[in-house]
Amino acid sequence: MLEEPGDLGTHLYRKNGELRFTVRRLLDPMSLSDVLPVLHSMGVRVLDERPFRFHRLDGDGRNTAEDTAWVYDFGLGPCPSVDADAVRGPVQNAFSACWRGESEVDGLNALVLSAGLTWQQVSVLRAYAKYSRQVGTVYSDRLISTTLGENPVIARRLVELFLLRFDPGLRISDDERASRGEELVGAISKELDSVASLDADRIMRSLLATILATRRTNYYQRAADGRAKPYLALKIDPAAVPDLPAPKPKHEIFVYSPRFEGVHLRFGAIARGGLRWSDRRDDFRTEVLGLVKAQMVKNSVIVPVGAKGGSC
Question: Going from the N-terminus, what domains does the chain have, and what CATH number goes with each?
Fold first, then answer.
């Protein structure tokens, strides 16, 4: 039931063998230039669009502009093997998250259909991809997205490894968690052995190593309203990340959301430093790393090691 202006309702279904997606909105119409990129990011093509406009009658049987409702029905393809019942929830939630700005509109959203991931799980891979860019990977965001999209089985197993390592609700011993983790790493490595592209192999092995280097996360934390927090924080052990530019901090926290990205570098348990806003979106970590090195020299008499945070 749509109650407030701008409320969104969605429904994925099959009709006569055709996959269709319906969007309902109260009062405010939707622009196709805003809707189509979201659907295309999920790896589907929009074959047709059928718009409908409805008015609810008041007590005198008259139309009221305040109760205008819009329904947009889209035909999607090519999706002959998609089980609408199985992916309905994840697809509907992913569309709504993109529309609200809680998820980015990029090629990684195709993993909702191809790998059976939720939009929050896709955001985990997106965060690691963003971190890879900050630590100096030569691969673009588009190539990383394409690589994961072309290897949905590996992408799903990377997410499974992340969830296995940090799910507080998983009622197993630490030893069993570690054992299952080793099995998953072995399965991922076996899959990677069959990847034809060297670039794809390097990209996914780098993501795997960074997941293994992660020590803590806020992924399972909830806000006061019970919803997931709008940002993902990853505490990473820089010593365990291969090819990380020197000097390597002792601790590092990377924060990702569609609205901003940030990093905090600490070179010791006791460190001194501040925060900074950066205009260097693609490599603000490099700027922060240089600043913390200067901070260590300036404060060497007070505190032997430095710390610095930055965001963009």
Answer: 8-100 (3.30.70), 104-215 (no CATH)
Strand-pairing partners, residue 73, are: 22, 50
- DSSP symbols for 269-285: SS-B--EEE-S-TTTHH
pLDDT, one tens digit per residue, over 58-104 is 555 555 556 788 899 999 988 878 899 999 999 999 999 999 999 99
Pairing of strands 18-26, 63-77: antiparallel
DSSP, collapsed to helix, strand or coil, labels residue 71 as strand
Distances (CA, A) of 78 to 32, 51, 103, 145, 223: 20, 21, 24, 20, 38
Please give the radius of gyration of the chain, using alpha carbons only, rounded to the nearest integer. Answer: 23
* Cα distance between residue 60 and residue 277, in whole Å: 57
Cβ partners under 8 Å of residue 266, min gap 6: 249, 250, 251, 252, 273, 305, 307
pLDDT for 292 = 77
pLDDT at 3: 46
Q: How far apart are CA 234 and CA 45, in angstroms?
A: 34
308 is catalytic: yes
Q: How far apart are the two ends of the chain, measured CA to CA in Å? A: 38
Alpha helices in 115-227 (DSSP H): 119-134, 141-150, 152-166, 174-193, 198-213
Residue 182, pLDDT above cutoff 60? yes
2-55 pLDDT, tens per residue?
Answer: 444 456 899 999 998 899 999 998 878 899 999 999 999 999 999 999 999 887
Q: Are 37 and 105 in contact (CB under 8 A)?
A: yes
Judge if the upstream peptide bond of residue 247 is cis by omega within 30 degrees of 0.
yes
List the structure tokens of 268: 């010791």
Instruction: Tell me the pairing of strands 251-256 and 261-266.
Output: antiparallel
Among candidate residues 15, 130, 298, 308, the one labeled active-site is 308
